[in-house]
Amino acid sequence: MLVFLTMLITFLTGVGMSLAMADKDGGHALIYLTVLVAYIAQVIYADVR
């Protein structure tokens, strides 16, 4: 489970970086990525606990 989550986070980070590069101001991609990471962290915390 933990390995899967690590792979998922790595993948999403890569996607977020690609979005940030594509988006010239980078604002929208950054906000989206932050929300996504916060959601994943919440899921991981709930799973671990």
Radius of gyration: 12 Å
Order of helices and strands: HH
Strand segment count? 0
Shape: elongated
Share of helical residues: over 70%
Mean pLDDT: 76
Q: Unreliable runs, pLDDT <50, ≥5 residues?
A: none
Per DSSP, the total helix count is 2
Instruction: State the distance separating the first and last CA atoms.
Output: 14 Å
Based on helices, strands and strand pairing, what is the structural class?
Answer: mainly alpha
The share of residues in extended strands comes to under 5%
Q: In total, how many domains does the architecture comprise?
A: 1
Based on the structure, what is the oligomeric state of the protein chains?
Answer: single chain
Largest sheet: none
Task: Give a brief description.
The chain is an all-alpha fold. It contains 2 helices and no strands.
Primary descriptors:
single chain; 49 residues; mainly alpha; 2 helices; 88% helix; 0% strand; elongated; transmembrane; membrane; transmembrane helix
Question: How would you portray this structure in words?
Answer:
Keywords: Membrane, Transmembrane, Transmembrane helix. The chain crosses the membrane at residues 30-48. The chain is mainly α and 49 residues long. It has one domain (2-48). Helix content is 88%, strand content 0%. The protein contains two helices and no strands. Helix 1 (2-22) packs antiparallel against helix 2 (27-48).
Topology (SSEs and partners):
Elements: H1 2-22, H2 27-48
